[in-house]
């Protein structure tokens, strides 16, 4: 006869199995959080982000901005009080890492930063204030496909490109070189993202040397032909230098400017920073696109000589960069001016231009009428412009380490003939002298081009521009054939 277990013993056995299963889950969660300084594959990366959002639901949100070439989600963790929406007046910042798949340090630093912000919220006054007052977006991996084909090693390019063989930091539309190859899904996802959210400040985390790189990365062809390196400044060069120095000088060694990387042992960067074009020009870079096309100021952080170091070196990387990453976030609260633009009835005005006298770069108000404009300390004349409204102007003083507040009220023009007057202006254009624009570039030859590429709409090629050379060439050929007959 078969022996049968009593019902009570069966219940005990099933309870033991259940407890074993639950304890296994808890152990797995313990392995995920707190985040350890190890290399996380794409699955583990997602699990870390999911664990953080599950443990800290009041200050986090996990969302995808799109997919990679192979269909992997590009995960972003948002960290802020009341996540999920833009709150009027709350500045937004993003960190993007692993754009080159084999440059992995930034990927792990952003996971550690996310854990640091979440676990210290409500416990550390500084972190709590930062999370309460800032909407922080962290994209640990922009190139998960490239990561999967990369491997531990300080140099080399295996895994650098996306799965379609494209360098994503050469893939953005460029004012000088246009679009040299088809937009990749990762690039398009970033473009959609930064046009959707009102980012104020950003950093792109790379590896291969130790320096902060700031715009511009590219320069016009007449300057590319130079045999010497050319410093090609943006209209806000002073601001970029300041924020680059803040990061490099907070880092324990970056500011020394002497990375001594094996491939470029003699390479030196005064103060640990460099203008991108002066270092080496590239076309289609992400930081330039941010500056040309949005309100966002972005720099590139080269975190160290080794692109994919062994895991035991990740803790020193975190200790070296933790304070600099936090101070960089705080810049949105202590640099430049911020405020709102309203109409006469107190309603927010979206798309109003914030114009700083003698600076070509303009920013626009977001849908709630709020704006941010990074500026170094000094006195500024600020003009706010919006079609169908009268301009408003103020003089604002920006003090060191303190943000200035400036709200504007725009009065609507009373004329009813806006469209008629605009049409007449187009039909009867009047030549206007080009006003001088200071601080646009160190090179007078491109002053006018800088003004054009920083306008709201990039200058496109007209039909006459495209067909002109073709018509002229055809006429020349016709004349030559007629003479030879």
From TrEMBL:
A GO cellular component annotation in the UniProt record: extracellular space
Q: Which UniProt keywords apply?
A: Carboxypeptidase, Glycoprotein, Hydrolase, Membrane, Metal-binding, Protease, Signal, Transmembrane, Transmembrane helix, Zinc
Active-site residues annotated for this sequence: 302 (proton donor/acceptor)
Per the UniProt record, one Pfam family is CarboxypepD_reg
This protein's record includes keyword Glycoprotein: yes
Q: Name one GO molecular function term.
A: metallocarboxypeptidase activity
The entry's protein name is Carboxypeptidase D
State the organism of origin: Stylophora pistillata
As recorded in Swiss-Prot or TrEMBL, the protein's gene is named: CPD
């Amino acid at each position: 006869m078969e022996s049968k277990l009593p019902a009570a013993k069966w219940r005990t056995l099933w309870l033991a199995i259940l407890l074993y299963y639950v304890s296994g889950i808890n152990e797995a969660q313990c392995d995920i959080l707190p985040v350890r300084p190890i290399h996380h594959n794409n699955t583990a990366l997602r699990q870390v982000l999911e664990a953080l959002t599950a443990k800290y639901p009041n200050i986090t949100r996990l969302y995808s901005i799109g997919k990679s070439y192979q269909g992997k989600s590009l995960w972003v963790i948002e960290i802020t009080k009341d996540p999920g929406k833009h709150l009027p007046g709350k500045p937004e910042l993003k960190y993007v890492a692993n754009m080159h798949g084999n440059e992995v340090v930034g990927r792990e630093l952003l996971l550690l930063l996310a854990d640091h912000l979440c676990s210290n919220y409500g416990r550390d006054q500084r972190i709590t204030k930062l999370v309460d007052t800032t909407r922080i977006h962290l994209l640990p991996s922009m190139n998960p496909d490239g990561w999967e084909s990369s491997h531990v090693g300080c140099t080399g390019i295996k895994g650098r490109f996306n799965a379609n063989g494209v360098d994503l930091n050469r893939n953005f539309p460029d004012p000088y070189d246009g679009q040299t190859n088809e937009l990749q899904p990762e690039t398009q996802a970033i473009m959609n993202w930064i046009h959707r959210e009102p980012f104020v400040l950003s950093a792109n985390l790379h590896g291969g040397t130790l320096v902060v790189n700031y715009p511009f990365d590219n320069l016009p062809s007449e300057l590319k032909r130079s045999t010497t390196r050319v410093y090609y400044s943006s209209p806000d060069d002073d601001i970029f230098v300041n924020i680059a120095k803040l990061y490099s000088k907070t880092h324990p060694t970056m500011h020394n400017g002497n990375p001594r990387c094996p491939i470029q042992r003699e390479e030196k960067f005064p103060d640990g920073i460099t203008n991108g074009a002066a270092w080496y020009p590239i076309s289609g870079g992400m930081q330039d696109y941010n500056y040309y096309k949005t309100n966002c100021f972005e720099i590139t952080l080269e975190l160290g000589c080794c692109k994919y170091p062994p895991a035991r070196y990740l803790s020193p990387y975190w200790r070296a960069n933790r304070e600099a990453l936090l101070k960089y976030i705080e810049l949105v609260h202590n640099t430049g001016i911020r405020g709102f633009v309203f109409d006469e009835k107190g309603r927010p005005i979206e798309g109003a231009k914030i114009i700083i006298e003698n600076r070509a770069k303009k920013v626009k108000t977001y849908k709630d009428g709020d704006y941010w404009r990074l500026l170094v300390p000094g006195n500024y004349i600020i003009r706010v412009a919006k079609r169908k409204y009268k301009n408003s102007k103020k003089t604002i003083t920006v003090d060191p380490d303190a943000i200035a507040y400036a709200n504007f009220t725009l009065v609507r023009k009373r004329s009813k003939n806006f469209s008629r007057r605009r049409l007449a202006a187009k039909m009867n254009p009047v030549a206007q002298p080009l006003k001088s624009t200071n601080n646009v570039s160190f090179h007078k030859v491109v002053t006018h081009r800088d003004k054009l590429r920083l306008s709201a709409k990039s200058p496109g090629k007209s039909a006459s521009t495209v067909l002109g050379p073709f018509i002229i060439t055809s006429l020349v050929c016709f004349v030559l054939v007629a003479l030879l007959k």
